[in-house]
Amino acid sequence: MDTVVKVILGCFIFVMLTDCEKIRNQQEDNLPSGSSVECIIYNVTSLNCSWYPAMTECQSTLGFWQMGQVKECPVYLKDNRRGRNKCHFQSISIIRDVQFTVQINVSVSLLPNLSFSQMFEPYEIEKLNPPLDFRYSLKKESFSLFWKPPPTKDPIMKNCFVYQLIIKGMDSKHKENITLNEKTSYTTETDITKRYAFKLRVRGTKDCGFGNIWSEWTEETYEGTGKYSDVLIFTSLATLTLILTLILLYVFKRYKLIDKIFPAIPHPKEKMAEWFLNFGKGERDYCQRLQVPVEVI
After folding, report:
1. Tens-place pLDDT, residues 134-159
2. What are the TM regions of this chain, as residue ranges (predicted)?
């Protein structure tokens, strides 16, 4: 009897250990690694980092280290759509020409605590803000676009920026995709009767240590529907009105329609004199007819 109990207990322990080993192996396979960490600097002073997988049984913490500055992540988020954990620093001082380290500590049941770290070059992961003060100046047959470099934490030379400009015809399929190195202006010919939309974005060059991350686009700027189009419409309407007026004057004169529509009114004085003259003549004739001859005795 004791032997049977020992066999059953041994089988139970073996099954439990086997299941635990399977769970352990599955958890080890699903644990995050250093290569899964992604970080991006944006809005000059903000930092976002993410890693996967976002396991419910895992508790993760993130720490930032650079030149003796140590910061623990203030805000943790979960990206359920991508299955990633996220950390957000709203404002953090990052020295751009010095690497920083992100360390993640993970605690999970049935496993010892795990930690891994990854180093980043700040410029390589920085997403610049859009260019500033994007505006245009319109001339007779051309327009010029102007802008200023994006804001940065440290002064950066103009040749460290690459700009992408999109010019799109609103009334046609015309579209220009222009890449400009270093320049902060662009001039091209235009047709004032057509509508255009412009937008601009920027990234840093690899020669200056930047990665290949483009900024967001500026808000679209529109041209071609302003006062120049209104002047053209007004001029066309004025010309058409003048032509129609000349045609009507010719027709009225040719067929004397003015005399027929608006006949001449006789002069009042002449009409009254004629009436009084006729009235006096009639009275005299009447009086003569009433005269009775007188017999002379």
Report:
1. 988 877 777 889 999 999 999 999 99
2. 231-252
Query: Among 88-97, 196-205, 282-291, where is mean pLDDT lowest?
Result: 282-291
pTM: 0.63
On whether the 132-223 domain is CATH 2.60.40.10, my answer is yes
CATH 3.40.30.10 correct for 32-125:
no
